[in-house]
Specification:
Chain lengths: 196, 275
């Protein structure tokens, strides 16, 4: 393959050709795709920190899988398609890092503690998400701030220092926020009530 | 432990940050108290509310200028205004899109590709390095201070080139050994100096840094102060017209050189115009 062919490849004038060459393992096509992946993934590098190499590898495997299964149908350019795959994968990985650990009631009955089992909250559907967002919008901003710290994994001691509030006061405020959110949820769900 | 005491610390029981003694006390209390078990269920429900974020596919759609499909657009807008986490993630996606669209943004250093697992071509690493980093090294002109760069979004929008967009250069071999040194191996590589570039340096640190540019004889030709931009990187503009030769960028913090933060690049005359 000469320089002219290489340049044509890099410009991705024929995405399907690039895919075919990539799946055949041709050096230039593999390099082209990986160059695009590396650029698109770069902004996520800092947040992924020492997991960066592993995530990049996950992206490559996912791209190889998708292209191998013919998932790329040319509805956008190949490069844009790869950008979407990269962004989805990296964002999911960043959010997975922040997943909390909590115990479900069954494991509590069996004597398992929060550190002993990881249970991810179920992903809400569109309807549930809209309800949760409506509740979230109506709770006071300081409640959102405190609870997001909890979700992010801060201890009440850390939060007390960060917010410059006594630990006892903080715990009561958080409890009131929880009660406020529950009341708002009931208010929105009440059949006779007018949703806002 | 009383019910009130247990109920107040349930959020931290769920996020796993109670110390071992508190956790054990709460667990023992829950095992015998129906009221507190209900409070735990209520706390989990509240958690579900406060853990709400914009779905990742909708962040990608928003970065693409499309309406979200998994959340009400107005709710997404309002959420972004109050959620620093989602706003930061959207900024990352937008930056990624900008990199995808504009090859005139160079990255130093790029990620280090690794061999693909399974039936990977043996040339994966070499090819990936060549392809990934050929797009990285493209220099020309003088380097301005980061203070002049300001917001990279603004700067990137203003970056102009007088030549066609960067293409992978045939024959360019890039070595990325020695702690991040990027070097064009072949002087025959046609890296034109008639284009401007924005360099994004990943320094692995924060705060104000000193930067020093050295020529091939290690004579300092420019010193500057750099401020970190969004995403924690440092941004440097390289306009066109730089004298051909080999240059080195070194970063310093508090007067001491940062180890492994040296980037060497070669600038050559632009290729003759093709017929």
């Amino acid at each position: 393959m000469g320089p002219g062919d290489y340049r044509m490849l890099s410009m991705a004038t024929d995405d399907r050709e690039v895919v075919a060459r990539f799946l055949r393992g041709e050096t230039e096509a593999v390099g082209t795709v990986d160059g695009w992946i590396s650029r698109a993934a770069w902004p996520y590098q800092r947040r992924l920190a020492d997991r960066w190499d592993d995530v990049l590898q996950d992206v490559r495997l996912e791209v190889t899988r998708l292209l191998g299964q013919g998932k790329f149908r040319g509805e956008s350019s190949l490069r844009t398609y790869l950008w979407r795959v990269v962004s989805h994968t990296c964002l999911d990985q960043i959010r997975a890092q922040n997943k909390w650990k909590w115990a479900d009631l069954e494991t509590l009955e069996q004597g398992e503690g929060p550190a002993g089992v990881v249970v991810h909250a179920p992903t809400p559907n569109r309807e549930d998400r809209d309800l949760l967002q409506r509740v979230l919008r109506r709770v006071p901003p300081d409640c959102r701030e405190m609870w997001r710290m909890i979700v992010a994994g801060l201890s009440y001691k850390e939060m007390s220092l960060r917010l410059n509030v006594a630990e006892g006061t903080l715990r009561v405020r958080v409890l009131r926020c929880r009660e406020k959110a529950a009341a708002l949820r009931q208010e929105i769900l009440r059949p006779t009530g007018k949703p806002t | 432990m009383t019910c009130d005491q247990a109920i107040e610390i349930l959020p931290w029981y769920l996020n796993g940050t109670l110390d071992a003694g508190e956790r054990e006390e709460v667990r023992n209390h829950l095992a015998t108290c129906e009221r507190c078990r209900q409070a735990l269920a209520d706390t989990r429900q509240a958690w579900t509310v406060f853990a709400q974020h914009i779905p990742t596919q909708d962040l990608v759609a928003l970065a693409w200028g499309q309406p979200p499909s998994g959340i009400d657009p107005a709710a997404a807008e309002e959420h972004l205004a109050s959620c620093a986490e989602c706003a930061a993630e959207l900024e990352m996606v937008r930056m990624s899109r900008r990199l995808e669209e504009d090859d005139n943004i160079a990255l130093f250093p790029a990620g280090k590709p690794r061999p693909l697992a399974g039936a990977a071509p043996r040339t994966w690493r070499a090819a990936a390095l060549a392809a990934g980093l050929a797009a990285v090294v493209a220099m020309g002109g003088w380097i301005h201070t980061a203070r002049q760069v300001g917001d990279p979004t603004t700067q990137l929008a203003g970056t102009q080139t007088s030549a066609p967009s960067q293409e992978m250069q045939p024959g360019v071999g890039i070595d990325m050994g020695g702690g991040g040194v990027v070097r064009a191996e072949s002087s025959a590589a046609a890296i034109p100096n008639d284009q401007s570039r924005v360099l994004i340096l990943t320094a692995g640190t924060s705060g104000e840094l000193g930067a020093e540019i050295l020529d091939a004889a290690e004579k300092p030709v420019k010193q500057m102060r750099l401020q970190p931009g969004p995403l924690g990187a440092y941004y440097v503009i390289v306009p066109s017209g730089m004298k051909p030769g080999v240059y080195t960028i070194r970063l310093q913090k508090d007067g001491a050189l940062l180890p492994d933060k040296t980037w060497t690049f070669e600038v050559v005359e632009p290729s003759p115009a093709k017929p």
